[in-house]
Amino acid sequence: MPAAVRPHPVQVVHDWNAAVHADEGEGEPERRAFTRPELEAFFDYADEQVVRVRGKGCKGWLPTFRDATLFKTAYGYGLRRNETRMLNEVDFGPNPHGREFGDYGTLMVRHGKAKKGSPPKRRSVLTVCQWTPVVIEEWVTEVRPGMRHAHGPALWPSERGLRVGLQRLDSRFAAYRDALGLDPALEFHSLRQVVHHPPDRRRLRSAVRPAAGRPRVRIHHRDLHVRLLRLPNPHPSPGPGRHR
């Protein structure tokens, strides 16, 4: 057999056709989850901005309310940034095993993180926090209809379009974080890491239980904002010398 046609090993896997093995970890090593005090401060500040802007009598309180609710939803369901942004109002549904959550017992995430060359993954997330349906229902029924583009399917419409942009989420998150003097390593994904860290998840379940005959979640009438954790009761019970 001539040497030119003699069988010999040939490399068939090259850089251009080899599978890419991506690390499972997301983000830089410096990035971390929120601590419990940091999370409380962040949500409190987001709520305070709603009151502050609305007190000026301008419509800017609507997107401020949207962003505060969006951050809480991402935390409550452990969502990534784009997963949160791409939610539609119809993505919520009842859970027959969690009837106490009403129409917000499950959440269909349609734009989950995809592997390279694959379409977005879908997954269902069950509602586990008692405050989550209250926060979302208030946004959907009382506040979202006031947005200019509320006629679209997006759960989070923007001031200028049908859906809020990623840049807006990043800038709002960074503004709140920096205003509080929090660690610059904290990012939107840090909200997801809080939920998925086992010790914090256990503490979360105890934090949302009703205390002293009232829920932890309090909706302030007129202000239309919700504080999630360790809220003072805006309507305290009368003392011995006070009338009901």
What can you tell me about this protein's structure?
The protein is mainly alpha-helical and 244 residues long. It has a domain at 31-82 and 129-227. It contains seven helices and five strands; from the N terminus they run αααβββααααββ. The protein has helices at 36-55, 61-77, 81-85, 131-143, 166-179, 189-196, 198-207, and strands at residues 92-93, 106-112, 121-126, 218-220, 225-227. Strands 1-2-3 form a three-stranded antiparallel beta sheet. A two-stranded antiparallel sheet has the order 4-5. A hairpin with an 8-residue loop joins strand 2 (106-112) and strand 3.
Question: Summary?
Answer:
The chain has seven helices and five strands; from the N terminus they run αααβββααααββ.
Q: Which percent range describes the beta-strand content?
A: 5-15%
Q: How many whole angstroms does the radius of gyration measure?
A: 23 Å
Mean pLDDT: 78
Main sheet characteristics: 3 strands, antiparallel
Helical content stands at 25-40%
According to DSSP, the number of beta strands is 5
Query: Which class do the helix and strand fractions yield?
Result: mainly alpha
What's the helix count? 7
Give the overall shape.
elongated
Question: How are the SSEs ordered, and which strands pair?
Answer:
Blueprint: H1 36-55, H2 61-77, H3 81-85, E1 92-93, E2 106-112, E3 121-126, H4 131-143, H5 166-179, H6 189-196, H7 198-207, E4 218-220, E5 225-227
Antiparallel strand pairs: 1-2, 2-3, 4-5
